[in-house]
Design brief:
The chain is mostly helical. The chain contains seven helices and no strands. It has one domain.
Length: 186
Amino acid sequence: MTTVIWIAAVALLIGLYLSWTAGRLDRLHARIDAARAALDAQLLRRASIAQELATAGVFDPAASMVLYQAAHAARLARDEQREVAESELSQALRAVLAEPAQLRAVRDAPGGQASAEELVAAVRRVPMARRFHNDAVRAARAVRRHRTVRWLRLAGHAPFPLAFEMDDEPPAALAEYANGAAEAGH
């Protein structure tokens, strides 16, 4: 009789462990979905602000065209092309805002101070949102690598999580502007 109790206790513990692991994996997948939605929102915000600046008439026509096309491509990119399009927008922002004079032109335009601050905020938030997303992906991958999870298919039919890799280095002028604005606020 005690053998049956021990077997039932072990089976119950194994069942609890498997249930907990499946629940943890489900929560990690939900966290990935939420982080991806936040990342998409930040990328869309950055592309929208870049597109607005490109059409505001503060840059020379060539720079405006480069920035507009990169922002437009980033906004319309499909999932499989999104990383490349967002990287190209980062490169376009660095190229257009390579000179501090370009950022001064944005700030000096009507409503430009607010636009510059929005752009700085958007450019700062993209790497943070990407980091949160990739951290969630890394955690889910670690759990999914366990043999028990693979053998018992505890992940169900959820696709294997993929990190979002892109060039998100901010333009130097924006980083300097952000540092100057932070120092002026203190």
